[in-house]
Design brief:
This protein is about 60% helix and about 0% strand. The protein is mainly alpha-helical. About 50% of the residues are buried.
Length: about 450
């Protein structure tokens, strides 16, 4: 970059540290099946189990723990619902106050959630309810602030965003690591105390590798971010902050394409939200989220039912499920390649209405691939045969990763950049409601709150 701007090393450091942050912290709640196995072994909510009136097929009397399963399912339901519902207010906080404030809130929530789990006991199992909600909201806010890192990489922006969303899915494997370490004798409390201590790393990254407000798109000349050495502290300010009041100089780089004179006016927020394209996008996303959450929330009792109470078999299949989730980071970039395929090469990418239409057409293939894989996943999940669930585990990874990638890529913005898909109509200048509009779409996934099963069964 030009003098004074963030160099390649700093941008790569931001990219890789963000990938680690998303892959190790942001979406750990979706590894719930692995954590439930540990919590059941520690006898959380054990008082809800009742003596079984009839023996199992191997002539042993097993307790009826449907009440315990239902309570664990309720914890996940509330946590996953908060993951979706709170994206609207969190998106507003990020849009209004910037990256630093949003990340400080996220770090506080995440630290509080890990400490609540660390201090919980079978007698204080109720602490799991606020703990999982805080981990969920803190994680979604952390990944929200990381989406803008894609703006540092120009034409590879969608690939970076989808890579981060894949890492978000893969972070569910953290609970698998906790489960394996617990089986090796490490206390659950010690592991969550360590996760709480990792908040110091989040804080350092907030100070040195993230902007105070947000990363604009396209990048202005010599753009820099993060705390600087003495004598260069002014470079911490964003391009907008450094511009003198009222200065509309000709060298200014616009953050979004301007409408031509006499052309279409910027689209306000309300028409975008009320558009049919936005509405069906929300419906499509909500249905797939509901199916995915239902599968994760009921996986442990489903495996217990299919394995006929064999704890060793349940543990093996739980590990297999968590391992396949780890592969989400490998699947999500496919969607970025699909979305950006028309931007690569020597051909000039059209702007304005033609560019919006090209972006929209490029998204069709990613939508078709995602939906097809979701259908195959649902078919396998409906087969009540334990070995078939291995195929279900494999098939649920690409749809989950691609769905998150589509959500990020199709939203109004990745924290400051132009939309991959216009949510109102091609040709109209996009509304300046980027992060809030995208997070409102994610908030509509709150249909996940409808998924609480009764009786804890599959």
């Amino acid at each position: 970059m030009a003098g004074g701007g963030a160099g390649r090393a700093k941008r790569l450091g931001t990219l890789l540290s963000g990938l680690l942050e998303c892959g190790a912290f942001c979406g750990i709640i979706f590894g719930w099946a692995s954590l439930v196995y540990v919590l059941k072994d520690l006898e959380y909510f054990r008082e809800l189990c009742q003596p079984s009136p009839s023996p199992s097929p191997n002539r042993t009397l097993l307790p009826d723990c449907s009440g315990q399963d239902e309570q664990f399912s309720l914890v996940f339901t509330i946590g996953s619902f908060m993951n979706n519902f709170m994206t609207l207010p969190m998106g507003y906080v990020f849009d209004r106050f910037g990256t630093a404030v949003a990340r400080l809130i996220a770090i506080s929530l995440y630290t509080g959630g890990t400490l609540l789990v660390a201090f919980s006991t079978p007698e204080l199992a109720v602490l799991l309810f606020p703990a999982m909600s805080m981990l969920s909201v803190g994680g979604i806010l952390l990944i929200l602030t990381n989406m803008q890192v894609g703006n540092l990489f120009g034409k590879y922006r969608s690939i970076v965003i989808t890579l981060y969303n894949g890492a978000f899915d893969s972070s569910s494997a953290i609970f698998l690591i906790i489960k394996v370490l617990y089986e090796r004798g490490l206390p659950l409390q010690a592991m969550f105390f360590f996760m709480a201590a990792c908040s110091a790393w989040h804080l350092l990254r907030t100070l040195f590798l993230m902007p105070r407000t947000r990363i604009p798109y396209p990048l202005p000349p010599a753009y820099n971010y993060g705390l600087q050495c003495p004598g260069r502290s002014q470079s911490y300010r964003t391009y907008e902050e450094k511009r003198p009041p009222g200065d509309e100089g000709p060298e200014e780089v616009p953050l979004e394409p301007s409408a031509p004179k006499g052309g279409a006016a910027p689209v306000p927020f309300r028409p975008c939200v009320l558009s049919w394209l936005f509405f069906w996008h929300v419906v499509w996303l909500s249905v797939m989220q509901l199916r995915h959450y239902l599968f994760i929330g009921t996986l442990n009792p489903l495996l217990d039912h299919l394995a006929r109470g064999d704890a060793s078999l349940v543990s093996t299949y739980t590990n297999a499920f968590a391992f396949t989730q780890l592969c989400g980071v490998l699947c999500a970039p496919w969607n970025g390649l699909i979305l950006d395929r028309h931007k690569r090469g020597k051909a000039h990418h059209p702007e304005g209405a033609r560019g919006a239409l090209a972006d929209l057409q490029a998204s069709v293939l990613s939508l078709v691939v995602t939906v097809t894989q979701c259908v195959l996943f649902s078919i396998c999940a409906a087969v009540p045969v334990l070995p078939v669930q291995l195929a279900t585990f494999v098939l649920q990874v690409p749809p989950a990763a691609l769905r998150e990638a589509v959500r990020a890529g199709h939203g109004a913005v990745g924290a400051g950049g132009p939309a991959a898909v216009p949510l109102h109509r091609p040709g109209a200048q996009r509304a300046q409601w980027g992060p809030l509009l995208r997070e409102f779409g994610a908030h509509c996934r709150g249909a996940g709150g409808l998924r609480q099963p009764r009786g804890g069964g599959p």
